[in-house]
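Worked example 2:
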Amino acid sequence: MKIDPLPSLQGSNDNQPSPRSGWVFRKLWPQDAPALCAHLLRLDPEQRACRFGRPVADEWIATYCASTDWARSVTLGCWVAGELRGVAELKILDTVWPRWAELALSVERAFETRGIGTDLFHRVLPIARNRGITRAYLLCLPANQRVQRIVRRLQPRLAYQGDQIEGEIELSLPDPLSIAAELCDDGCALVLSLWDWQRGLALAA
């Protein structure tokens, strides 16, 4: 099914006092590869299996992060107190317009049930639309109930492939609202990142 633009969630990239204070949602760049690797290494064995569809070792994760094609992917992270704790990865599968992409979510165990995964999911969909992606695929294990709950409201097409479930989400083409949502989030992330950097300098002085 097609979905309308999803607005940014209030209470994340803002300065309102809330349990989300200190959260920054921003895109990762190649220089953030070590932070991405550290985040994935902090996932426990069950979470790694849910993220990658099978158990993976530390060495495999290191190779995965080192081989990331940043030109053909978008990685959105949730930074809590300067540490990367949740990630939405969008891997573009083809270059033909309109495009298809694979979507994956991961949130560290200690930060689950706080809405990070839901927020990342809602924020990455406008980003996908703005890149001409009209179909997003998400693979998950049947036991991965958290991800299934996040995507259920979008009523994706589901197909069972062996021991995995593939969800297909149909997206609309970009429009001014989706572009504005991404630009707004990028601007807020920049301001909050600079604020954290200045605060770190002040504490170190």
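The mean pLDDT is 81. The domain at 23-204 is CATH 3.40.630.30 (Aminopeptidase).
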